[in-house]
Structure formats: C-alpha cells, structure tokens
C-alpha cells in the first residue's frame, strides 16, 4: 500500500510518454518516471531498515537527475529552435543538414 503513490506517479509518467509526441512533454514524462523510481528506492530503504548508504545513493541519484534534466532540456530546446517544432516525429535527423 505504501508503494501506491510511486506506482501512480510512474503510470502518469508512462502515460505522458506514450500519449504525447512533443519533445518537452516526453522529457517531462521521463523525469516523472525517474522521480517515481527514486521514491520507490527510498520507500524500500525505509521499510527494510537498510543502512543510510541507500538514502545517500538516492540523494545522489536525484542530483544527477537534476543535472540530466538541465542538459536534456537544453538539447530539446536547441532541436526545437533548429527545426521550428517540438514534434518528435519531425526530427528525422539530428545533424544540421550541412554536408
């Protein structure tokens, strides 16, 4: 029962990824999935009374996810600027078209 909020959060993230084709929303869905995973790891560490090392690892994982979000969002915004859209079906290639 304690894992229910994390499962709901994971399902919301998965639904966002499956339903939308906009790069920013898909990226948000991935970040929500990562947050649900971190939440689950913290709940498991708390329930099973695992050492504090797990909590430090999860905290480090949250910091890495924040850095990944910054870099990923800058890549998405650069692609949107280059292709004039955020629809991922329009991104046929990642190169700029110069040969």
UniProtKB/TrEMBL annotation:
List membrane-spanning regions: 23-42, 54-77
What keyword terms does UniProt attach to this protein? Answer: Membrane, Transmembrane, Transmembrane helix, Ubiquinone
Its localization reads: Membrane
- Report the GO terms under cellular component: membrane
Q: What is its main location?
A: membrane
Note one Pfam family from the annotation: Oxidored_q2
Origin: domain of life: Bacteria
Query: According to Swiss-Prot or TrEMBL, what is its membrane topology?
Result: Multi-pass membrane protein
> What name goes with this protein?
NADH-ubiquinone oxidoreductase subunit 4L
Tell me the lineage of the source organism.
Bacteria, Bacillati, Bacillota, Clostridia, Eubacteriales
């Amino acid at each position: 029962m304690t894992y229910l909020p994390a499962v709901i959060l994971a399902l919301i993230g998965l639904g966002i990824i499956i339903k939308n084709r906009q790069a920013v929303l898909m990226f948000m869905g991935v970040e929500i999935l990562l947050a649900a995973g971190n939440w689950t790891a913290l709940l498991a560490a708390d329930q099973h009374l695992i050492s504090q090392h797990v909590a430090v690892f999860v905290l480090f994982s949250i910091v890495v996810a924040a850095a990944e979000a910054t870099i990923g969002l800058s890549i998405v915004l650069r692609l949107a600027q280059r292709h004039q859209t955020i629809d991922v079906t329009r991104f046929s290639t990642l190169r700029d078209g110069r040969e």
